[in-house]
Amino acid sequence: MNLSMSSKNKTLLLLAITSALAATMPQALNAAEPTSLAGKESAGFVVSDIKYALSENFDEVLSCPQGVSKNEFEIYAKTPEGARKSTETEDDFEKRAMQAAYAKMANGGKNLCLHPELAEKDPYFRVLDNTREQTQGINLDGRASADDFSTPDGEQGIDNQFLRLVGCSQSFQPSGTSNGFAIEMLAGSWGILLSLSGVDDWQNDDLVEVSIFANADPIQLSPARKPLHYASYNYDSDSRFQTVTKGKIKDGVLTTEPADMRFHHVTNALMLERIFVDAQIKASISDDGALSGYLAGYMPIEALYDYQFGYRHATLADGSLAPEARRVQTSNGASFVLGYTCQGVYQAMHHLADGHYDPIEKQFTSISTQMKFEAVPAFVIETDSRNTDITSTGAQ
Fold first, then answer.
1. What is the mean pLDDT of the chain?
2. Could you tell me which residues are beta bridge partners of residue 355?
3. Packing angle between helix 324-338 and helix 342-352, nearest 10 degrees?
4. Binning pLDDT at 50, 70 and 90, where does residue 384 land?
5. CA 40 from centroid of its chain's CA atoms
6. How far apart are CA 137 and CA 281, in angstroms?
7. Res. 105 pLDDT band, cuts 50 70 90
8. DSSP code of 263?
9. Which end of the chain is more exposed for a tag (fewer CB within 10 A), N or C?
């Protein structure tokens, strides 16, 4: 029997085998070919981009007439002892001023970033007072008050006191460095999953179930470092990072009922948690199974300070408290680069808080925060652990 085969026949056979294998693969795995949601009762998503919803037309003169916030170095440099000496080179001056500025301690030798409550009032921290500032987002409390924002198209009552908190800090402007979280997320340190089920109509449905999870798997990227469509993800088995709520779809826009949510957050390899209380989602659903909209809610002041500014209770990957020196270096470094003092932002947070009033302490304990996000189609795998697949939610 002659087993030899011409090059042409080999090529034809290879093409036939490739076509047969491709036919057995789920259509959803082909990221180049979007799959419609029509006729499906459920769908999964992975967040592909998320950032704070900040001012869209920031004008420093109008929004911050007293200027922007200053960091410890800038404040120290304005003092008599902080002035540059005639005998100092520029490098020597910066080194001396930097060491002096960030050596400031509260009573008892405690670092001010780890103990901002012990500091004197910072007169150089600025908040956004412009009542005409506009931003997108969700009306969380159903009211329109004097502190709320409006959208460019005229919607009133957008609750976003976080914007007031950081609105006069340079790094939180539209072109600033603090707007997004893509670096750590796309590096696989954390992620967010969503799934919708019980959907009868993707344009209008009075009742759907919405699940929000912390991702247990690194996000899968294309060679161009874009999140892949229809990748499979396990969600975190810790129930604290799992939320199920109800929602509705009207004219292709999903809105959810308030629910508490918790996500992972990583900064400088320090593990933290991002907590939303009474959070809501408002997002448009595209025909090819993508989401685009807002996640908004109230962040407890102490938790927000920890994950965004102070890193007081940041842990290592094994769950142990990170060394104090590392937490101090991270918080001091962030305040220098991003342009504020730890005590200044902490004091302003308490002043601007607008959620969850504590009648005993006679103060609000949380601050309204809006985040803009996009999510692409994904398979959300229900698991008892990271390695055991039971069922999945996604486009089939």
1. 86
2. 366
3. 80
4. low
5. 29
6. 10
7. confident
8. E
9. N
